[in-house]
Specification:
mainly alpha, about 120 residues
Length: about 120
């Protein structure tokens, strides 16, 4: 799968780099603004990542590779949770976070498909 070269692909790469950076930073010790805030953050992180990728393909006039993007999301979710569990002291891996990640990805793909059908 080749990514198109446009501003959305660049934004997606920057978003991905920011997500990796956030993963490696120590966890905040302040109480969250609301219960399960981390799940909402995971959902939003993956929604934005996949949405930007779908926009990159659509803007590049290429078909959106829904299945490949879902596989990417699954691999990234599993990798990020394992990395948190194995390589950080202040974070833990969580199946709930993986589910929140994948929910964000699925919502972004549904939104992209709905937008594609409206065109």
């Amino acid at each position: 799968m080749n990514l198109p070269r446009n501003r959305f692909a660049l934004l997606s790469a920057l978003w991905f780099a920011g997500g990796i950076y956030a993963l490696l930073r120590p966890a905040e010790t302040a109480p969250p603004p609301f219960p399960h805030f981390d799940k909402a953050a995971h959902l939003a992180l993956f929604f934005a990542q996949i949405w930007l990728l779908t926009k990159a393909f659509k803007t590049g006039k290429l078909p959106i590779p829904y299945r490949s993007l879902m596989v990417f999301a699954l691999c990234f979710a599993l990798f990020s949770e394992c990395a948190q569990a194995w390589f950080t002291v202040t974070r833990t891996g969580s199946l709930g976070d993986v589910l929140a990640d994948l929910t964000g990805a699925v919502l972004a793909l549904f939104a992209a498909r709905a937008a594609d059908r409206m065109d």
